[in-house]
Amino acid sequence: MSNISVCNKCDLIVDHIAIAKNKHAHCPRCNSLLYTNTLFSISTILALSITGLILVVIANVFPMFTITMLGVEDSATLIQGAWVLFQKKFYFVGLLVIFCSFIAPFLFLSCLAQVCLLLLTKRNTPQLILLLKLVNFFTEWSMLEVYLVSFLIAVFKLSDIADIEFQLGLLSFVSLMFISSLIMYGLNLELFWQKMEKNAKRER
Amino acid sequence: MQNAKDNQIAKCHECNLLISVKQDVKRQRCPRCFTRVHFRIPRSIQKTWAYLISAAIMMIPANFLPISTLTSTGQETPDTIMSGTIALAQSDNLGIAIIIFVASILVPLFKIIGLMLILLSVQNKIFISAKRKLLLFNAIHWIGKWSIMDLFVISIMVAVINRGNLLSVDPGYGATCFGLVVVLTILAAESFDTRLIWDLNHKNERK
After folding, report:
1. pLDDT surpasses 80 at B37
2. CA pair distance A129, A125, nearest whole angstrom
3. Which of A124, A121, A107, A86 shows the shortest CA–CA distance to A180?
4. Which residue, A167, A178, B26, B92, has most beta carbons within 10 Å?
5. Strand locations in B12-151 (E)
6. Are B17 and A146 a contacting pair at CB < 8 A?
């Protein structure tokens, strides 16, 4: 069935035509994206996700900003915000915030890096399928760009009552957001599934 | 125009593999990723309604309970989403007030009402054209995550403004309800199968 493709949004059967690089194929009935030819290779994705993982560490070790209020200097990291919610016994909100702003992006990158490594070294472990499904799941829940906008709003609100100085953590957080958007843009999981199938056939 | 379902072709929900399904085989699994194969998300309309109704109910406490409490020199002022937005607008932060208002009041409302309209239309209760339905759904899907913004802002404020009785911000139970609204509306959009829109068109054309 490689000569046809099916639209994800409206279930229309379309002839699968080879398209030029950097072009997209759209569904003739509902205009949704069918398939693209702008994909990063597996090693590009590996490089990007490792970069992302390094940035996650920096963004969480170093504070995003320091704040001077009522003569006291204080600094905040990404996780701290959620942690204080836990301390105040708002477990659900804390969990939601930490999941969407830290856990989901982090696990997305680390699962993706593992998948790339396993595929490139042609090791076909059973976890590979699970990891690929997890990558799919975490893309939905990673909300770095929303967090960045919220951060800017919080800074605006705070700037009336306190002095704020940006720190290294913010810089790496912004870079992390760009890296993850780049991955989302160029990631074509179909390529990964096909590679997995090919490796599995070789083993047999 | 041919639907894949009519030709016994199913697309795997996880890995997008095309699988030819024989009618008699129930509970077939995808040969590539071992996920259960379905033509459509099972009980999609029921699930979406369930999530939507719960979200609509949670909207009430989310908007009326205080979402955060500001303590300034011993005086506590609880803020709901709306009163917080008004306070922002009055303190010359009109731009931010508009962003917060759109993200935490208009967007959840738009999501709930929009999805309800799509569901009613798929169930043949009201008429909206298929293209419009999909456009509306895509907008809901895209805008979905942005309604969580207010919770992120609160988490940052709570973390940095913490000077005991002099000045501090505490979360309120409205925040928990609002978080539930966000999660429930995202789950509602996830469990709706857009292919149902075109199944309906198909049925209507044949009549």
Report:
1. yes
2. 8
3. A107
4. A167
5. 18-20, 68-72, 75-79
6. no
DSSP strand E in B15-165: where? 18-20, 68-72, 75-79
What number of helices (H) and strands (E) belong to chain B?
8, 5
> Which of A168, A178, A159 is closest to A65 using CA atoms?
A168
Widest CA span in chain A: 69
pLDDT at B207 over 70: no
Mean pLDDT of B117-124: 90
Local confidence band at A160 (pLDDT 50, 70, 90 cut-offs): confident
pTM for this predicted structure = 0.89
β-strand pairing of A33-36 with A24-26: antiparallel
Judged by CB atoms within 8 Å, which residues 50-79 of B form the interface with A? none
Whether B4 and A11 lie within 8 Å, measured CB to CB: yes
The answer on pLDDT for A157 being more than 90 is no
Q: Which residues of chain A are within 8 Å of residue B91 when distances are taken between CB atoms?
A: 160
Where helices occur in chain A by DSSP H, the ranges are 42-61, 78-87, 91-98, 104-120, 127-141, 144-158, 168-186, 189-203
Residue A48 has which token pair? 């990007």
Structure tokens at A98: 């930490």
From B1, B16, B156, residue closest to A154, measured CB to CB: B156
For B47, B157, B177, B190, the CA distances from B50, given in Å and listed in that order, are: 5, 33, 17, 13
Q: Is B99 left (phi over 0), alpha (psi -120 to 50) or beta?
A: alpha
Average pLDDT over residues A20-39: 82
